[in-house]
Amino acid sequence: MHKKNHFCNQSLKDLNTFAIDVKAKKIIFAKTIKDLINISKMCNISNTPYIILGEGSNTLFLENYTGVVIINRIKGIKITEKKNFWLIHIFSGEKWHDLVKFTLNLGIFGLENLALIPGCIGSAAIQNIGAYGLEFKDFCQYVDILCFKKHTITRINKNSCKFSYRNSIFKNQYSNQYGIISVGIKIVKTWRPIIFSSFQKYITLTNITAHNIFNLICKIRKKKLPDPKKIGNAGSFFKNPIITKKKAEKLASLYPIPFYPQKDGLIKISGGWLIENYKFKNIHIGDAAIYEKQQLVLINKKNATSQEIVKLAKIIHTCVFKKFNISLEPEIDFIGPIGKIKSSDIFELKKNKV
Q1: Catalytic residue status for 182
Q2: In the CATH hierarchy, which top-level class contains the domain 228-345?
Q3: What is the three-class DSSP state of 95?
Q4: Is there a catalytic annotation at residue 236?
Q5: Domains of the chain: which residue ranges?
Q6: Is 228-345 the same fold as 10-72?
Q7: Given the residues 123, 135, 166, 168, the one annotated as active site
């Protein structure tokens, strides 16, 4: 670990949903593309590291950040109506949930299953966010990225974004020296509700509306997920594992584990179920703990350090692997003193699909 630098003096506690009390050398809010270019130029000239945050909702700072944290507040929404669909261009500093509410109130239906997912539009593309039978890639048409070396903007077509489960090209090839400026999505006018299995006892044929689905999802999420304004967390800490059918069948023969077939023939299983059924007994490291109502979520009860959260996550990872032979892969981004750190450098990750 690097020693804490004395020049890291601006607190990030209110700018990351885990509410980890770490500092940055400097925090700058960017409201325009020009701001973003000028800040990156300044950092490049002075050889200062920098990262871009939206809501800081999928992030764990491991220690003080020695560079500049750029808070993306580039906003704007442009809607173009066509005969059979709407085209919506959204700048990356807009909050995702605000977009869902905005379109719903305009009578543009389709995003309601993704209600109340924290974070901004930029992270929606990076993470390929998803919930209740939908993913960001189902609507995405393109993503516009800014190259910080050339200061040029390039449009990446959806077919080149390499979207997969909580992953995209923006987490990999375009993770360094690039920033997402805006995205384009397409919503067809013929609305077809996606009724997830857990909705069926609440939604009937007579009351299927986009507003009802939106309200139900908000209610479900508020009930089972902690509010970051009250309890520090970054949503699901681990991904739901995706394994082969053969491995799933073997697991199902031993345990009553729920699993969900994917389009590619693989099987998604519940990571929360694995943690819950390991039956950890009130485990916590300092103020780092497992959230009782949704065990994929790790929480900062009050003053947890990032080291305590990582230690807890490692214990969970090791125990689940020993019992179920399943390797839980972290979903969140780890940020060290000069930038992102691969989760494989922190956890002993093993491939699950074999």
Answers
A1: no
A2: alpha beta
A3: strand
A4: yes
A5: 10-72, 77-220, 228-345
A6: no
A7: 166
pTM: 0.91
- pLDDT score, position 66: 96
Catalytic residue among 40, 92, 182, 236: 236
Whether 73 is a known active-site residue: answer no
Burial track 224-254 (b if 16+ CB lie within 10 A, e otherwise): ebbebeebbbbbbbbbbbbbeeebbeebeee
| Phi-psi label, residue 62: left if phi above 0, alpha if psi -120 to 50, beta otherwise | alpha
**Type of residue found at 116:** L
Tokens of 260: 């969900």
Show the tokens assigned to 231: 């309890």
Query: 309, 18, 1, 21: which is closest to 10 by C-alpha?
Result: 21
Residue range 77-220, CATH number: 3.30.465.10
Question: Considering the domain 10-72 in this protein, what is its CATH number?
Answer: 3.30.43.10
Count of other CB atoms within 10 angstroms of residue 93: 25
Q: Are strands 297-300 and 288-290 parallel, antiparallel or unpaired?
A: antiparallel
Q: Is the dihedral of CA 53, 237, 348, 284 positive or negative?
A: positive
CA distance 41 to 201: 55
Check residue 6 and give its pLDDT.
44
Element holding 211 (H helix, E strand): helix 210-224
Token pair of 132 as six digits: 């209740």
Positions in the chain whose pLDDT score sits under 50: 1-6, 354
